[in-house]
Structures are given as C-alpha cells and as structure tokens.
Amino acid sequence: MDPEASRTARESLDLAFGMSNILDTGLDRHTLSVLIALCDLGLNPEALAAVVKELQKEPSSSGGTTPSVN
Asked: Does the keyword Cytoplasm apply (predicted)?
C-alpha cells in the first residue's frame, strides 16, 4: 500500500473510531477495523451489527479464552 493510501485509510479509521466513541458503541479500534474490512468484502452491515449486538449481550468468559465445544 502506498503512503498516501495508508494515510487515507488511517484517517478514515480515525474518523470512524471517533464516531463510534461518540455513539458509545464500545468497539475498540481493531474490532472496528475488522468490521469495516468485512463490509468492504461485501458482508451485510446490518447482519454484522446484529452479530455484534448479540455478542455484546453475552457475558465474557473467564480468562478471555474461547469456550470449548463438547
């Protein structure tokens, strides 16, 4: 990625992160970046929003590990 494109991408993420903070979404910069990338790949933004809302409802697992599936 050339320096100008990199700067533009960083500024866009900064703007989106600022808006995210104003709206009190609770998303960190990395998560927001991943969600934007998924939208760029064609995933439905409304479906992603629904998934994020559902995941935010779930209590955190202890230690931050992925729960095992039996």
From this structure: yes
- Residue 3 burial (CB < 10 Å; 0-12/13-18/19+)? exposed
| pLDDT for residue 28 | 96
Q: What pLDDT sits at residue 33?
A: 96
- 7 vs 22: CA distance, rounded Å: 23
List the chain residues with pLDDT less than 50. 66-70
Measure the CA–CA gap between 47 and 49, rounded to whole angstroms: 5
Residue recorded with tokens 């998924």: 38
* pLDDT score of 62: 52
